[in-house]
Amino acid sequence: MGVGRSEGERAGSGWIFYRGPVLVALTYIAISVMYILVSDRLVSALVTDAAAVERIQSVKGVVFVTVTGLLIWYMVARLVRSLAMANARLAERERRVRALLDGAPVPVCVVRDGAFEYLNADAARLLGDAGLLEKTPLEARALPEFRAGVREMIARVERSDAGEWARDLRMNGRDGREFDAEIAACPFALDPHAVQVVILDVSEQKQMERAVRQAQKMEAVGRLAAGVAHEFNNSLTAIMGLASLVKVTTSPQAQYLAQIEEVAEQAAELTRSLLTMSRNGTSHKQRVALRGVLEDAARVIEAAMPEGVRFASSLEGLADSPVFADVGQLRQALLNLALNARDAMPKGGTLSLRAWTRATRDGREEAVVEVRDTGMGIPAEVREQLFTPFFTTKENGKGTGLGLAVTRGIVEDHGGRIEVESEVGKGSVFRVILSVERERVAT
Questions:
Q1: How far apart are CA 51 and CA 48, in angstroms?
Q2: What's the whole-model pTM score?
């Protein structure tokens, strides 16, 4: 990285470089003129012999050439020494600046004419090898839709003395990884023709912000759902009770009451789902063997699979792995994931249920339950809304949009989490992760 200097610095240092030699040269010219004029007159006045005058003139020439050579040597030596000292000072200054930038706790780079000229260690770790990025335009590391904005921001900073800050950008990092970024740019103090840029990876911050917004939305929806579900459930209880009473009569319309009860029971199941999502439902947790719960769920799942969908399970990795759970709710969550996977394979495929345990970094033990399908896969824009209540990609009447929202509510109520991996055309993987509770007592 070259360290630039301002016009004033260059002018001042140039005068320092040449001041000594220039003063010596001017003094030499003055002395030389006086020496020639005075010596010629003295020789003419004091010496009349032509041969003697010629010898004196020869001596004068030798003296003049010798003095001239010494003065030239002195000026060149002084100039070389001054340049060497100035270069040493610049090298030391550059070393200090490099050490300062390398030691910065954030990714810092220097951009000249819109292209990378220098990257510190953190910037290289974030964006890629510094040697490969030199002379590469900064805007090229941004996603296409953000490049014009980055280019214009750097151009504005180059034209002014003011800094700028750009938020809500997406950039390509090392090995092609995309990340959310914020960029702060300002003129580089050591070079007016360069721009100092700080690039921050704010992916985790953005993810936390999205999680907070989702939690707030879920809380609001949960409160609304709980209120509606309670009122709706009261009405359904009355309908089902009256239908049961009327059914024992011999009225010709009694045959329709069974249908009324069936529809009311379906509506009651919907209210239970709403209450589960809002976490206001009744939960009875106890320490249970997870493998037994999964084996029961596997039998139900296999029976629910249509022709053309192959089901396979592998639970050997669990052994004796107790979890603290409500068996009914946990079974419901797994069935929701399985039915969701089934619907993603309208032309058939394979649904697999696997489970195993693993140790965490802090020494705890957790169980992983994986539901994998070979279906259509989930686009990125849909994955962001998968667990949003009432969001569904199914046709009207074929889905309430509550299945995955309820599943996440159940898992989080059990102190667990859900991980999702999916690629369009290659299927999806849902992993439910729960803590193994070997000593916990039911409450």
A1: 9
A2: 0.45
